[in-house]
Structure formats: C-alpha cells, structure tokens
UniProtKB/TrEMBL annotation:
Protein name: GTPase Der
Gene: der
Assembly, per entry: Associates with the 50S ribosomal subunit.
Species of origin: Anaeromonas frigoriresistens
Entries under PANTHER family matching the protein: GTPASE DER (PTHR43834:SF6)
Protein's GO biological process: ribosome biogenesis
Span of domain EngA-type G: 4-168, 177-352
Keywords from the UniProt entry: GTP-binding, Hydrolase, Nucleotide-binding, Repeat, Ribosome biogenesis
Pfam families: KH_dom-like, MMR_HSR1
InterPro entries assigned to the protein according to its UniProt record, in alphabetical order: AAA+_ATPase, G_ENGA, GTP-bd, GTPase_Der, KH_dom-like, KH_dom-like_a/b, P-loop_NTPase, Small_GTP-bd
Origin: domain of life: Bacteria
Length: 438
C-alpha cells in the first residue's frame, strides 16, 4: 500500500543529489561538487504526469568507515534493495565505468528489483564514447541525462513510472481517515493499536524495533472508517546500525506522508526527547493533524497535579506543535483509550475544514479593529481581504499592501484569532501573504 518508492543509488559525486533536487522541484539535498556531501538520507515527494511517488536520495561517504567507498556503497545498495520499488542506478557518463560501479551493479543485479541505469553528465545528444562501457553491467541501455541542465529528465521519469507496481498507488475512499502511529521504538505504538482494535492485530514485543515495516489495519467504528498505519519506531541515526532499521525509517516517513492524522506516542518514563522532537517535526512539516499521546502513564508516580507539570514539559519540548491536543494514556491498562477515536475525528475534521471567504473576512476585520496592524517608517500595513485556498491543512492567503510590513508577531496574532473563532485544534494552519495585484 502507499506510494511507490524511487531510490537514487550510485557512487559518490555522480550527481545523485542534483537529480533528486531536479525531480523534487526544489533544493532539498545539499549539492556540492565533492564526494560525501550528502551525509543523511533525504526524502521527498515526487510527481510526474499525475503519478505520485516517494523519493530517496541515498547518503554519501562516512569518514570513519574502514573501507570508505565499498562499505558505504554496499550500505546504499542494500537499503535501496530493501526499500525501493524502482532503483535509479546512477553512473558518471563522462568519466566512464569504474570498479565501484561494478561493485554496486553486482548487488543490484542479484536483488531482482526494477533497475534503471542512468548515465549522468551527458550534456549533448551525441553520447560520449565512454557510454558504451556501461553495457558491460548487464543492466540494459543507459538512460542519458544531465541532472544539472535538466536534459533527459522527462524521458527518465517516463521509464520509471512504467516500472511502478500497479497496486502501489491505490488509495482509500475519501471518507476514510488514515492514522499514522508514530514515535520512537518501544514507546507502545503496536500495543496502542491492539488495545483500540481489541485484538492482537500487530506483533507486540518489548524489544525495540519489532515492527519493521508500515502495516495498514482498516477498521470501522459505527459509520466512521479508519485505517491505522503502524510504523517502525525511528531511532537516532547513530543507533541505526542494521540496514533493516535504516529502511524502516523510510517506511515511517512515507507513512506520515500518507496519513491524515498522526498519533505521536511519547514514553512517559522518558519524557520528550530530542528524537521525539524530530519525529513530531516530520508530521508538522508535512502539515498533518497530530495528537500527542503520553503512553505508560500508569507507570508514573503521581503527586498533586503531576499531569500539569508533565503537560508543561511536553509543551516546551514540542513548542512548534502548540495546536496538538495531549492525552495521558496507558495502552497496557486501557486508560483513556476510549477517548482517542473521538479525538481523531475532531482533529481530522479540523484538518479538512473549509471556511467561507465572507466569514473569514469578518473574523479578520474584527481582529484588525481590536489590534491595529503594525507600521514601519510611517507606512502602515493594510490588510485588504483573506481567503482559504486549501485544506489538509487549512491554508489562507491574505492580501496586503506590502508584505514586508507583516511582522511574524502580527501573523501569529491573526492565527490565534482564527483558531479562537473556529477551533482548529490538532491541525497546523498555513498563511501566505500576497501584495494585491501580484
């Protein structure tokens, strides 16, 4: 289930990140003309001719590796083999075939994955003589491109989408709420789903990382339809040593991208950690509705108003997610589990909310009367009108005389007024400020 995954693999400095950025349509990977710049694996959504897919830019060299190139290329190839539906095996068309190219090709050939050989740095329609060396790899005819100049990218994507599995891009009906259960390993995600479903549908173990892949579990509550997406727990990168856990991170991120609502599960015994902040940040950056669930609350010794102190700590640790409701639960005992479905429905409705232009402008007009827009050097910000242009999450465009005068504090004030008027608990909201006539 879910979108096809396209992985870009190759030895250092063949142009993987440049191709990734070209397909993604924006600079996500750092591009620099030296090996090993891409230290982390980067993920993005791609689209070509209404075919949507997830894309991975594999990492570069790790300096502390004993055999730098071969060991790192092996890791990249293994990750792509385990994760991707289609692999773009990238080589340097100008330089020609190298021993490292052969090493990676050997692994990919054994994988039985769908592979496209991509010869980069071919800047003209006349192929260089070096291009014929790549036929030795037995991976078919190379697709010649120039990632930096955009030459051949469309032809490459045409070939890629032909190889996508037919059953991958199937979606659920519009009224199905897709819920991703996210968090660190051993936070209790699988136990939570089992408790909600009332049966052992997902493997539960106290060994971190038992859930290796994203598992879809459809279920109904009355007339409401849901799908739970249980994800592998995401660890800190330095602790991710097994390739199987490396690709579980990819699956978790693609699960977040597929979801409408994310249940961010935090271990009450550990509190909000740096890794929790990063995982919640993925959901926030993807514009997902989110509920924060503090699990294992039964294991915490309680004093008067313990939860208030803990709630304050959670709010401080996840300050960027002030809109998300917090529930203190126990997947083991079932405490407050019965409230989660209602919370999911509330934040899902808010995430999809549409506000009419007339009502929205009434609220913005009242906000302006209560608190005048800021001015700078004698010039005052004027707000002409506002309109909602998207949902999931709600996005508003506000037309002004000069967007440079829109201070972040006044933008936050407007957001708070809209939230106060319409609730919008659990969902981020986006603003775009435009000058009238542009």
């Amino acid at each position: 289930m879910g979108r096809p995954i396209l992985a870009i693999v190759g030895r250092p400095n063949v142009g993987k990140s440049t191709l990734f950025n070209r397909i993604a349509g924006k600079r996500i990977s750092i591009v620099e003309d030296k090996p090993g710049v891409t230290r982390d694996r980067i993920y993005a959504e791609g689209e070509w001719l209404n075919n949507y897919f997830s894309m991975i830019d594999t990492g570069g060299i790790e300096p502390d590796s004993e055999d730098i190139i071969l060991s790192q290329m092996r890791q990249q190839a293994e990750m792509a083999i385990e994760t991707a539906d289609v692999i773009l095996f990238m080589v340097d068309g100008a330089e020609g075939l190298t021993a490292t190219d052969r090493e990676v090709a050997n692994m990919l050939r054994k994988s039985r994955r769908r592979i496209i050989l991509v010869a980069n740095k071919v800047d003209s329609h006349t192929p260089p003589s070096t291009i014929y060396e790549f036929y030795e790899l037995g991976l078919g005819e190379p697709v010649m491109i120039s990632a930096s100049h955009g030459y051949g990218i469309g032809d490459l994507l045409d070939e890629a989408i032909k190889l996508f599995p037919e059953d991958k891009d199937i979606g659920y009906e519009e009224d199905v709420i897709k819920v991703a259960v996210i968090g660190k390993p051993n936070a209790g995600k699988s136990s939570l789903i089992n408790k909600i479903l009332g049966e052992e549908r997902v493997i539960v173990s106290d060994i971190p990382g038992t859930t290796r892949d994203a598992i879809d579990t459809p279920f109904n509550v009355g007339d409401d339809k849901f799908v739970f997406i249980d994800t592998a727990g995401m660890r800190k990168r330095k602790r991710v040593t097994e390739n199987i856990e490396r690709y579980s991170v990819v699956r978790a991120l693609t699960a977040i991208e597929r979801a409408d609502v994310c249940l961010m599960v935090i271990d009450a015994e550990e509190g909000v950690t740096e890794q929790d902040t990063k995982i919640a940040g993925y959901a926030h950056d993807n514009g997902k509705a989110t509920i924060i669930l503090v699990n294992k609350w039964d294991l915490i010794e309680k004093e008067d108003k313990t939860y208030l102190s803990f709630e304050k700590d959670v709010r401080e640790g996840l300050a960027f997610m002030a809109y998300a409701p917090i529930a203190f639960i126990s997947a083991l005992t079932g405490k407050r589990i019965n409230k989660i479905i209602d919370l999911i429905k509330v934040v899902s409705n808010n995430h999809a909310m549409r506000i009419s232009t007339g009502v929205l402008n009434d609220i913005v007009g009242e906000a302006i009367l209560m608190n005048q827009p800021p001015s700078d050097k004698g010039k005052r910000l004027k707000i002409f009108y506002a309109t909602q242009v998207a949902s999931k999450p709600p996005k508003f465009v506000i037309f002004v005389n000069d967007k440079e005068l829109m201070h972040f504090s006044y933008a936050r004030y407007l957001e708070n007024q809209i939230r106060t008027s319409f609730g919008l608990e659990g969902t981020p909201i986006l603003f775009e400020f435009r000058e009238r006539g542009k």
